[in-house]
Amino acid sequence: MALAVVGVVVAMTISPVAAFAGGNNLAYNNEHGPVIHKLVVDEIFWLPKGYTYDKDTSDAQYELLMRRFVSDLGGTPYYNIVTQYPDSTGVAPVNSVTLDDWVVDTANSYPNDVPLTRNDVRKEVNRMVAKRSWTEDGNHLFIVFTGHGIRVWKARGGYHDALAAGSTLTYFAAIPVEKPLGGASPNGDAQADGEIPLLSHEIFEAVTDPAYNFHGKAWQDSNGKEISDKCETAAANLPRNAEGANIYLHGDPYRIGSRWSNYVSGCSPDLCGESDCGQPLSLSLNGDVTAQTAVPIRYSFKTDNPSDTNAATSLTVIDTLPAGLTYEPGSSSIQVKRSGQTLTWARGALAVHDAWSVTFEAIPHASFRENTVVNCAQLTSFDALGKPVLDLSGGSCTSAALLPTVARPRPT
Fold first, then answer.
1. Is 68 in the same domain as 197?
2. How many domains does the chain have?
3. Using one digit for the tens of pLDDT, what is the confidence trace for 103-136?
4. Fewer CB near the terminus (10 Å): N or C of the chain?
5. Is the dihedral of CA 209, 215, 220, 226 positive or negative?
6. 324 found inside a domain
7. Distance of alpha carbon 45 from alpha carbon 67, whole angstroms
8. Has this prediction a pTM greater than 0.70?
């Protein structure tokens, strides 16, 4: 299906993804359409002389990132989403993607009829399949990338489709050059990073509904939307970290969209079991190791999100100061809500591989009756789908030894 162009949400105060799409799950539609069981990809970089993919960096770098993404995709919690969509035989796609081969075609010019017709793209697939002796079967997907200014659809965007050769169906996708990614670029290539969301979009749809024009629909909702179409809104984009990434696949950063998961009836960035892969965050609270009455103790807390795929949302840190320890007004490095002895900090979201830290001060007064100042804080958070995740460590505490107050000599 065509991919609509949407804006990128970079703000760190988005709501959980699940809030933006619920119900109307994908259905198999009883049309016995196939799915791709074990995806094998061959990439065709159709780039006649005089054309380019990337005006800012090299075409070779662009091509490298398109290949790397396919190589990174399989065996991840992100691609695992497709495993819940079997065909009529009850066999579902497996969490495996193989990059079989790739070719740069500079010899064949683009036809004069731009945007390219589907027949134009089919012919290019057939040429390269014959040239490279590629296998045509129910697992192979041939992806054609076209240069700047060459559209493959009436509107901006790409598509996936199939062509029939006797009883064999050949699956393919067409990927035109889209707008560069705005903001931080995870791989230092705004054009390629802006293209990868479209590549991901079409791969997920090709796997779960590859032959909707031939042997019947596979997985679509009641409105004809496929697994990626349903989540192609700015609201469904997970927050990006400082590097510009919202997902890491085998250690490599990407900015890509969530995909529809029937298990949660919403857009999800991953699949673990029958839900998403949200994990608890740990909190560390630190402070001065010694203290004196009427002298501020400097505290700091920190949490980070080690997940590769799942943003944390609705983070709250609560620190109820012990009696005799009073918050120093204005000392917090970010806005804090104070109610008596209770301090509350909130953050809308914490992207993958991102961290959150805050500093503040509190003063022990003469009324403090212990020799040690013990202060504790707790963190609560939700996962990308808005489900609560418990901090299994039960929060964090820090201690400061309260030293005797040194009397100042009286002036003579």
1. yes
2. 2
3. 999 999 999 877 899 999 999 999 999 999 999 9
4. C
5. positive
6. yes
7. 10
8. yes
Starting at the edge strand found earlier in the chain, the sheet holding 39-46 runs 97-105, 39-46, 140-146, 168-175, 159-165
Which of residues 218, 244, 268 is at a domain's end? 268
Statement to judge: residues 383 and 260 lie in one domain: no
Tell me the CA end-to-end span of the chain in Å, nearest whole number: 89
For 328-380, write each residue's pLDDT tens digit. 999 999 999 999 999 999 999 999 999 999 999 999 998 888 899 999 999 99
Amino acid at 380: T
Dihedral-angle region of residue 4 (phi above 0 means left; psi in -120 to 50 means alpha; beta otherwise): beta
Q: Domain span at residue 176?
A: 17-268
Q: Please give the structure tokens belonging to residue 341.
A: 């002895």
The DSSP H or E segment spanning 73 is: helix 59-73
What single DSSP character describes residue 153? S
